[in-house]
Amino acid sequence: MKKGSKRPSLRQLWQDTDLDLSRIRPADPGDDDQVRWEQAHARRLDAAELRLFRRAYPVLCVILCLILSTALVLTVAYMPAFGREDSPTNNEVAARYIEGATAEAGAVNAVAGMIIYFRGFDTLGEAHVLFSSVCAVMILLEVEPDRRRLRRERAEDRLYDLTRDSVLKEVTRVLEPLIFLFGLYVIFNGHLSSGGGFSGGTVIGAGLILHAVAFGFTDTERFFNRKVFDVIRVAALLFYSAVMLYFFYTGANDLDAWIPRGTPGSIFSAGFILPVNLAVGLEVACTMYAMFSLFRRGRV
Amino acid sequence: MNLLTVLGRILDNYEECAAMVLFAIGFFMLILHRNLIKKIIGMNIMDTAMYLFLASIGYIEGRAAPVLEDGAADPALYINPIPTGLVLTGIVVSVSFTAIMLALSVRLYRRYRTLNLDDIYTIIREERK
Amino acid sequence: MTELEIFRLILLTFLVVCAAASAVSRSMLVTVIIFMTYGLVMSILWVVLRAPDLAVTEAAVGVCITSSLFFVTLRRLNLIRKRGEEDADSEEGK
Question: Considering the entire predicted model, what is its pTM?
Answer without folding.
Answer: 0.86
